[in-house]
């Protein structure tokens, strides 16, 4: 394009000169016009040339972009490692050149204490061979790194870690960036979730059976006990009607009164088991005190009761859950614990209430406990937004603690309750 402009200017100038010579005239205005054309052509040519030179080619544009990308320096790498939440180890020839704070904490080491350490020393003995094979493998075979590996902390405790690696250059030497993620919390949560699912499945599978068992027990109580008492009263009334002796008739009527009193007492017991009237009439504190004294004193035990007056009355669902948890715990003590001392405590915790039932009986291993009652107690607490812990070891008794809100809440229960 510049050459075309220049050529056109020369042609225009030569043509004008020839025309002037043919006409035989020259004027100053003509010379000025020629100079103006030359100057205009030169300016246009220079501007076009400069513009073409400034426009970069695709190759030059890529080079310019690369010039503005800074290289990853040593301090940049250390800062990146420091900010990562996972453990990061920089390995050179199988040894640790650098480690970030997350890795130091993961392996229980002081800051920078891992530098110079053989990386194999961080791996559990059972997995050391597989890790050494990966370290000796060439870069193209780095896929040989196991996705998870059993590693070892400073105190000797083992933990499962997820691993990822990348080949980098460190000080002009080949190096490996090893990323380590501790899976201990994830495995614990997985095990707890699996155990919780098993408990829920067991609860769902047996809830219908439990309801049928309760109905069968009530039916048996009504038939065998109440039914027999009513039958005996009927027979005594028939005998009294046919009795001519006034004294004998009086004795028969007195027997009927005794049977009626016993039958009413039994009906009250069954009704209380289904729903204690004290819970509705007097509140949670009085219902717990009455039930504990009635149940434990009947078995020859003197309960240690510490039932504080609550500043406000909990929701009806919370009262019922708290009472049923205490009832189930005390019933289990009577059936299985062979305890000499039993303590029941109820206290205010500000925004929640705390229930504790403790005994000095036989105890059990919590991992081996399969009773449905324990599952039901835990579920009663969870349903209203509370939490329940069971602490027991064989021969040392059992402690059941529940933290329940005053107001029923559908939210998930907290991970752990407050201290005792």
Automatic annotation (TrEMBL):
Task: Give the reactions, separated by semicolons, that this protein catalyses.
Answer: ATP + protein L-histidine = ADP + protein N-phospho-L-histidine
Question: Which enzyme class?
Answer: transferase
Instruction: Identify the EC number(s).
Output: 2.7.13.3
Write out the entry's keywords from A to Z: 4Fe-4S, Cytoplasm, Iron, Iron-sulfur, Kinase, Membrane, Metal-binding, Transferase, Transmembrane, Transmembrane helix, Two-component regulatory system
Q: Which Pfam families match?
A: HATPase_c, HisKA_3
Q: Which residues form the signal peptide?
A: none
Q: Where in the cell is it found?
A: Cytoplasm
Keyword Phosphoprotein annotated: no
- Give the transmembrane ranges: 29-50
Q: Does the keyword field hold rRNA-binding?
A: no
**GO molecular function terms noted in the UniProt entry:** 4 iron, 4 sulfur cluster binding; metal ion binding; phosphorelay sensor kinase activity; protein dimerization activity
Question: What cofactor does this one take?
Answer: [4Fe-4S] cluster
InterPro entries listed in its UniProt record: HATPase_C_sf, HATPase_dom, His_kinase_dom, PAS, PAS-like_dom_sf, Sensor_HK_TwoCompSys, Sig_transdc_His_kin-like_C, Sig_transdc_His_kin_sub3_dim/P
One Gene Ontology cellular component annotation held by this UniProt entry: cytoplasm
Q: Where is the Histidine kinase domain?
A: 324-408
What this chain does, per the entry, is described as: Member of the two-component regulatory system NreB/NreC involved in the control of dissimilatory nitrate/nitrite reduction in response to oxygen. NreB functions as a direct oxygen sensor histidine kinase which is autophosphorylated, in the absence of oxygen, probably at the conserved histidine residue, and transfers its phosphate group probably to a conserved aspartate residue of NreC. NreB/NreC activates the expression of the nitrate (narGHJI) and nitrite (nir) reductase operons, as well as the putative nitrate transporter gene narT.
Q: Can you say what this protein is called?
A: Oxygen sensor histidine kinase NreB
Q: Which organism is it from?
A: Luteimonas deserti
Q: Top-down, what is the taxonomic lineage of the species of origin?
A: Bacteria, Pseudomonadati, Pseudomonadota, Gammaproteobacteria, Lysobacterales
